[in-house]
Every structure is written in structure tokens, then in C-alpha cells.
Specification:
With 465 residues, the chain is an alpha/beta fold. Helix content is 32%, strand content 20%. It folds into three domains: 126 residues, Rossmann fold (3-Layer(aba) Sandwich); 230 residues, pyruvate-formate lyase- activating enzyme, CATH 3.80.30; 63 residues, Beta Barrel (OB fold (Dihydrolipoamide Acetyltransferase, E2P)). Strands 1, 2, 3, 4, 5 and 19 form a six-stranded parallel beta sheet that branches. The protein has a five-stranded mixed barrel with strand order 14-15-16-18-17. Strands 6-9-10 form a three-stranded parallel beta sheet.
């Protein structure tokens, strides 16, 4: 039985891809190990989003190749986004890597292993659509489409992932059912632009229809929408969110900047006024909606006045959370031809100023939760305190903070707590009265139960979210 280790770098879309690879490898008789020193084959699923992500991927590849000298490793496979963009130069630079496969070639992963005699060519028993590959089996991700049709000047994702392709609605519902049977209590819908779902299929199924189907055909208590371009957040979509309590009142929509001049150079479709009007509409149709956005500082030509406009706009819009990136020029994008004329030190200083500003905004907005009762999802038990580590509906996994709760409840359970205190800027302390977990509402489905496969991989990084 081949022992393999799979390292996943980058965004949640990569996590979904890796879970599929895990399932296929296990089906062919391989065994996943968490300690890479025990692995005979190491697979690195790379990220190529920005320079820091590329460096992280290269470091992981180099660490894996050293295991060929110091451990039992017989082969290293480098796959995914970074390979799609830089395969030829990486082949020259890293001869110690055995196989390079870009995102358009990952269907070659199994054949390469079979041809090298490393795994069986026969499927022994497939464990299901995906094998869980993280630390929290109750938090899962459903990728609803692949690729992107947007032409943002700074973004290389279309070069790595290709044109936008939506997956069939019935296939997604079936996959969600299987994830529920594997223990999913929170299902995060992900794509390069979730709001674009279905437009290319022309079958009348868009994101609202997908959400409604998930409401009918699963009983997963929390369904979360991650990364939607604002142009696709329609009144119909907002009404579906408002009408279904199992769809958490949370939107992750990238703004990227607040200066119209910078937005135009970025080739973004939004402008200040459209962002202002749309955010007002979101909050009007879905009361108490949590809205997260991302911004980029240091884009070519960004002046101090542009940056001040961005800060003032963030003050005005009062987003619940803001992620901030410094601009990194990517070969092949339209912005690569522009002079990268903002010094790295200024980019970093502006990033820190944005983070400080948003920390104050978030703290003020979070005060509305004090004294409120809310369901929270129990993620784990704290190592030192023994308390429960949970998340409220306005806190997405890994990026929006946590809730500390005294008591003991099963991992993956939903309990109702009272928010008592804000701690560490983005976290809370809460009190639980010990009442049994909330039961999900919805029609149970009749799909066959599948075994939970204890085959975690190493997951690092969150670039591209």
C-alpha cells in the first residue's frame, strides 16, 4: 500500500481539488499520511496567486525534495496553479521534482502514478466524491464553478484556471448530500465569482436556484456564500438569503479600492457610487447582514490622495471585515505592463494603516452583538483553556475570528450563547447555558451513508480568498 502525503497551498478551491485527489488515490489502494517523512510519494498542490504564495509553494516543493535524500520518499509531484503558469521554467529550475502537472493536466495524476507502478490500476473501493483533507470535518467547501471571465487588470486567475464553467445543479446537490453524510455542518459555497454561477449553462439555474435546491435537498444547518462580485448580487439572491435562516447572513464581496481612478485602472466594473448603492440595498433587504470585502493597496499609480479616498470610503461604508493585500505584479496580466511605481515600504505602510483603521471600524460594529443571543458552531476545544472554540454566523472559517465559550459540547454542534465581551479585536467571549444543540431544519435526504475516511492532508495558506 503506497503511503502518500498531500500538501495543499492557497485558497479553498484548492482544498476542494485536493480532497478529490485524496479520494481517487485512496480508491486505488493508497494510504494518506500526515507526517511527510513517512510518505513514499509527496504531492504539492501549489498556489500561484501572488509572489508570496509562489514562494510558499517553492519552499514546500524544496522541503519535499529533501525527503528523497533523508526519508522514504520515492517521488515528488508538483501540481496546480503555479505549475500551470510557470511549468517550463520550474522544470529547468527544479530537476529533482519528478512530475509537474498544471491545473489543466491534473487528470494525469493517477495515470502517472499507475505508469510508475506506484499504485494499483484497479479501483478497489471508492470512498465517495471526496475524502476530507483538513482539521474540521464539520466545515466543508463546495466548489460550484471553475475559472473566471472577469478581466481585472491585476489578476492572473484566468491564466491559471481558464474561462468560467459552472457545474450542473443536480451534481452539486448530490455532492452536498454526500458531504453532509460525511459530517458537514457548515457548507461554504466557493468559486472565483460565486454570483456568476449558472450564467454559462443557460438552463435557468443561477445561484438563487442552487441555494433553494440545497435548502430542499439537504439538512446542513449553515450554508455560507464566499466571494461574490457585487454586480451579481441581485435582489432575488438577497431575498433568498433573507428568507432562509440556514443561509447565514454573510456576504464576501471584493471591492478592491475606493478611488474611482484606481478602480478604472484595475479594470473593475464598480465605482464608489455603485458600491454605495449596492451595499445599502444588501443591508435593506437582509437586515443584520455581515459584509466582508477585500482591497488592494499600492496598485500602479495609486497616489496618497487615492489612498486617502480609500480610507474615507471604508469609514463611510462600515464593512464588518476587510482583508488587505499589497499589490504584486503578475506576469501576463494587463497591469504587468504598468510601472510598479509604489515603493514596497509604502505599500506595507498603507496596508498597516488600512488594518488599523478597519480594526477600529470592526470593533465599533461588533458592539451591536454584545448581550445578544446567537447560535454558534463549535469548531474545537481550546488547547490551554479547555474552553470551546466556536464561530458565530458573521465569522467565516479561518478569517473572521472566533468565539470563546465555557462548557463542553460535541465538535460540530450548534449551541445558543450570549455574547458577553469583545476580545483581541475580532474575537468574543460568550456564555452558554448548557442547552442541547440546535437541530437543523430541512427535509432529510435518503442518500446512502458513506464512511468518514480519516485521511487528513497538510493544508497551508489562504491566498486568493
Amino acid at each position: 500500500m503506497l503511503k502518500f502525503g498531500l500538501v495543499t497551498l492557497g485558497c479553498d478551491k484548492n482544498t476542494v481539488d485536493s480532497e478529490r485527489y485524496l479520494a481517487d488515490l485512496v480508491a486505488h489502494g493508497a494510504q494518506s499520511v500526515t507526517d511527510l517523512r513517512e510518505a513514499e510519494v509527496v504531492v504539492i498542490n501549489t498556489c500561484g496567486f501572488i509572489d508570496a504564495a509562489k514562494q510558499e509553494s517553492i519552499d514546500a516543493i524544496l522541503d519535499a525534495t529533501r525527503l528523497k535524500e533523508d526519508g522514504v520518499c520515492r517521488a515528488v509531484f508538483a501540481i496546480g496553479c503555479m505549475i500551470e503558469r510557470h511549468k517550463d521554467e520550474l522544470i529547468d529550475a527544479l530537476p529533482e521534482v519528478d512530475v509537474f502537472l498544471g491545473t489543466s493536466e491534473t487528470d494525469r495524476l493517477l495515470p502517472e502514478l499507475i505508469e510508475r507502478g506506484l499504485i494499483s490500476s484497479e479501483i478497489l473501493e471508492h470512498p465517495g466524491v471526496r475524502v476530507f483533507g483538513g482539521d474540521s470535518a464539520h466545515v466543508r467547501y463546495l466548489k460550484v464553478s471553475e475559472g473566471c471571465d472577469h478581466g481585472c487588470a491585476f489578476c492572473a486567475i484566468p491564466l491559471m484556471r481558464g474561462k468560467h464553467r459552472s457545474f450542473a445543479l443536480d451534481e452539486l446537490v448530490r455532492e452536498a448530500q454526500l458531504l453532509e453524510l460525511q459530517g458537514a455542518r457548515e457548507l461554504n459555497l466557493v468559486a472565483q465569482d460565486l454570483a456568476h454561477y449558472g450564467r454559462d449553462r443557460r438552463d435557468g439555474h443561477a445561484l438563487p436556484e442552487l441555494l433553494e435546491a440545497l435548502m430542499r435537498e439537504t439538512s446542513i444547518p449553515w450554508i455560507r456564500n464566499l466571494y461574490l462580485y457585487s454586480a451579481g448580487i441581485t435582489p432575488r439572491l438577497l431575498e433568498v438569503i433573507a428568507a432562509n435562516p440556514r443561509i447565514v447572513r454573510y456576504l464576501d464581496t471584493p471591492m478592491q479600492h475606493g478611488s474611482d481612478a484606481v478602480l478604472a485602472r484595475m479594470r473593475r466594473p464598480e465605482r464608489q457610487q455603485s458600491i454605495r448603492e449596492r451595499l445599502a440595498r444588501y443591508r435593506d433587504i437582509v437586515p443584520d447582514l455581515a459584509v466582508r470585502t477585500t482591497v488592494i493597496v499600492g496598485f500602479p499609480g495609486e497616489t496618497e490622495d487615492d489612498f486617502t479616498i480609500l480610507c474615507d470610503f471604508l469609514e463611510e461604508m462600515q464593512f464588518d471585515r476587510v482583508g488587505c493585500f499589497t499589490y504584486s505584479p503578475q506576469e501576463g496580466t494587463r497591469a504587468f505592463a504598468l510601472e510598479d511605481d509604489v515603493a514596497d515600504a509604502i505599500k506595507q505602510e498603507r496596508k498597516e494603516r488600512i488594518e488599523g483603521l478597519q480594526r477600529a471600524i470592526t470593533s465599533e460594529r461588533y458592539e451591536r452583538f454584545l448581550g445578544r443571543e446567537t447560535p454558534v458552531l463549535v469548531d474545537r476545544r481550546g488547547d490551554a483553556t479547555g474552553q470551546l472554540i466556536a464561530r458565530a454566523p458573521w465569522q467565516a472559517d479561518d478569517i473572521d475570528g472566533i468565539v470563546h465559550v465555557a462548557g463542553d459540547a460535541p465538535i460540530g454542534s450548534l449551541i445558543t450563547v450570549r455574547i458577553d465581551q469583545i476580545v483581541d479585536d475580532y474575537d468574543f467571549r460568550a456564555t452558554w447555558n448548557g442547552v442541547a444543540e440546535l437541530q437543523p431544519t430541512g427535509r432529510p435526504h435518503a442518500a446512502r451513508a458513506l464512511p468518514m475516511m480519516p485521511t487528513p492532508s497538510t493544508t497551508v495558506g489562504s491566498y486568493g480568498r
